[in-house]
Amino acid sequence: MRVASVARVDTATAGYADLVTHDSPEPQSDAGQPEPKVSTRDTPDPDVPPEEPSAPEAVAVGEPEETKRSALRELAILAVMAVVLYYVMLTFVARPYLIPSESMEPTLHGCTGCVGDRIMVDKLTYRFGSPQPGDVIVFKGPPNWNLGYKSIRSNNTALRWVQDALSFIGFVPPDENDLVKRVIAVGGQTVQCRADTGLTVNGKPLNQPFLNPATMMADPTVYPCLGSEFGPVTVPQGRLWVMGDNRTHSADSRAHCASIPAEALRGVLCTGDPASGTVPVSNVIGKARFIVWPPSRWGGVGSVNPQQGQ
C-alpha cells in the first residue's frame, strides 16, 4: 500500500513539469490530448526587422508643419486682398484728405502748424452726376493755379520712389496740388460782384449762411464783395466757378482769373478770358462728405445751395 501511494505522487509531479518546462528532451503528453499552443506575440524575433509605422501615424507627425504653412498662405492671401480692396476704395469710392489751409473756415478747419480737418471725399457721386452750386469739392488745380506749388516728395531719389509706390496704393497722398472750395456757379451761369449788389449769379443775389464775419474779419453787409469787385464772368460749359467760405483768406477763382488792364485799373477783376479762373469738371476728384478727424470735429460737410430762393 505504501508503494502505490508514492507512485501516484510521482505521476502528478511529472504532469506539472509538462506544463511549465519547455526544455524536456522527451515531453510527456496524455494520450488523445492536443499539444498546448504557446503564444510568442510579445517576444520579438531578432532576425525580423521592426515594422514601419503605418500611413496614418506618418501623416499625424507632419500635420503641425502642414497646418503652419496653410495658415501662412491664408494670411498672405488676406493681406493681398486687403491691399487690393483698399486701393479700389481709394481710387473709385472714397479717400481721406487733409485740409492744410484756412480758406474754408469755419466749414472746414485748417491752418499752418495746427491739426487740420481730415475729410472723407466721395468719389462715386460725380460718376452719376455733375457738381452743383453749394457742393464742397476737392479738385486738382489747373496749371495756372499751380504757380508756387511745392512738391511734397522727398529730395532723396530712393525715398521718393518709395513715396510714389505707396501713393499708388493710397498710403501716401498724391504729389499734386489738390484744393478744396465751394461751387458758386456752374457752366452757362454768369457770376459777378459789385459793391451795390454783392455777389450775384445770373443777376440774382445769393444766400450764403456758411460765411462767418468773425472768421473773415469783415462784415458782408459792409463789404459785399469781401475783396475786389469782379466780373461779369460767364462760366464756360464743363467748368465751375469756385470760392472759399473764408472769402478774405481764399485764393479761389477770383485770384486766378484774367483781367482787362483798363478794368483792373478801375478795380474790377476777372473781365478777361473766363476759362482761366474756372475749374474743369474733369479735374474734380470728389465731393466732401464727412469730417473724420479730429474726433471733436466729427460730422457731415453741408452742401448749402446759395442760389436757392432766387
Concise summary:
The protein is of the alpha+beta class and about 300 residues long. The chain contains six helices and 13 strands.
Which properties best describe this structure?
single chain; 310 residues; alpha+beta; Umud Fragment, subunit A; eight-stranded antiparallel sheet; five-stranded mixed sheet; 6 helices; 13 strands; disordered N terminus
Notes on the protein architecture:
The structure is a single chain. The chain is an alpha+beta fold and 310 residues long. Among the domains are: 58-95; 99-141 and 177-300, Umud Fragment, subunit A (Ribbon), CATH 2.10.109.10. Helix content is 27%, strand content 20%. It is built from six helices and 13 strands. The strands form two sheets. Strands 1, 2, 3, 4, 9, 11, 12 and 13 form an eight-stranded antiparallel β-sheet that branches. Strands 7-6-5-8-10 form a five-stranded mixed β-sheet. The N and C termini lie far apart (148 Å). The model is unreliable at 1-29 (pLDDT under 50).
Summarize the helices and strands and which ones pair or pack.
Layout: H1 2-20, H2 55-93, E1 94-98, E2 118-122, E3 136-140, H3 157-168, E4 178-186, E5 190-194, E6 198-201, E7 204-205, H4 213-216, E8 229-234, E9 239-243, H5 253-256, H6 261-265, E10 268-269, E11 279-280, E12 284-293, E13 299-300
